[in-house]
Amino acid sequence: MLLYYAPGLCSLAPHIALRRIGAEFDIEKVDMPTRRTEHGADFRSIKPSGKIPALLLDSGELLTETIAILLYVADLAPRAGLAPPAGTIARYTLTDSLSFIASELHKSFVPLFSKTAGPEIRAEAKRDVMHHLQALDLELTDKNYCFGDAFTVADAYLYCILGWPSRVEIGLAGFPALTRYRARMEEEPGVLEAVRAESLK
User: Fold this and answer.
1) Which end of the chain is more exposed for a tag (fewer CB within 10 A), N or C?
2) Within this chain, domains 2-81+190-197 and 89-185 share the same CATH topology
3) From CA 116, how far away is CA 131, in angstroms rounded?
4) If you average pLDDT over every residue of the chain, what do you get?
5) Residue 169 has what pLDDT?
6) Alpha-carbon distance 71 to 48, whole Å?
7) Terminal CA-to-CA distance of the chain, rounded, Å?
8) In 3D, which of 6, 4, 3 has the Cα closest to residue 198?
9) Burial class (CB in 10 A: 0-12, 13-18, 19+), 87
10) CA distances from 100 to 119, 136, 173 (A)
11) Does domain 89-185 have CATH number 1.10.760.10?
């Protein structure tokens, strides 16, 4: 398998999951301003949107959305417990958590990374981010994990997104539960391995 990634972006989540299960895979860095891979290919010829992540399977098929990739990786190694079995209510509840992270939390950051978003749009986005972080901080006050009582792909995704507030002048200083959660996640197998492989620490 080959994971196309850009350091610190949402591709970090499947990167963590792949390392967590001990999968055999390679990584290829994509320069987002030029959409060129480190080997000189035009990433848009691989994924027309030019957005990461993308996971090229050994079969030649390509998965291109974070949630799909995370659940695929989880199903490669069921005993690792990164997701409940397919068809169970717990699986749907996990998917619900993943969808919140993707469609609410992740999406709310987009204008803050945009070079073209105006002041009003950025201010509204910042309010949305703060709202979601406050809700998550409260939810994780007495919890060790995002979903259930063990590390899942939802934790890989949330850990990734919680690295973004400091990049948009928000930070996690006002969110003690999230600060503790993110530090605790770095003790989980696979997390720091992926972070270091992307030269983030």
Assistant:
1) C
2) no
3) 23
4) 95
5) 85
6) 22
7) 24
8) 6
9) exposed
10) 26, 11, 23
11) no
Task: Give the per-residue pLDDT at 201.
Answer: 59
Delimit the domains of the chain by residue range. Answer: 2-81+190-197, 89-185
At residue 28, φ and ψ (nearest 5 deg) are: -135, 120
**Amino acid code (one letter) for 108:** S
Across the beta sheet with 36-37, the strand order is 36-37, 26-31, 2-5, 54-56, 62-63
Tens-digit pLDDT profile for residues 29-48? 999 999 999 999 999 999 99
Q: How many CA atoms lie within 13 A of 63 on its CB side?
A: 18
Q: Locate tokens 């390509």: which residue?
A: 62
- Give dist(CA 47, CA 81) in Å, integer: 30
Per-residue HEC secondary structure of the chain comes to: CEEEECCCCCCHHHHHHHHHCCCCCEEEEEECCCCEECCCCEHHHCCCCCCCCEEECCCCCEECCHHHHHHHHHHHCHHHCCCCCCCCHHHHHHHHHHHHHHHHHHHHHHHHHCCCCCHHHHHHHHHHHHHHHHHHHHHCCCCCCCCCCCCCHHHHHHHHHCCCHHHHCCCCCCCHHHHHHHHHHCCCCCHHHHHHHCCCC
CB burial of 15-28 (b: ≥16 within 10 Å; e: otherwise) equals bbbbbbbeeebebb
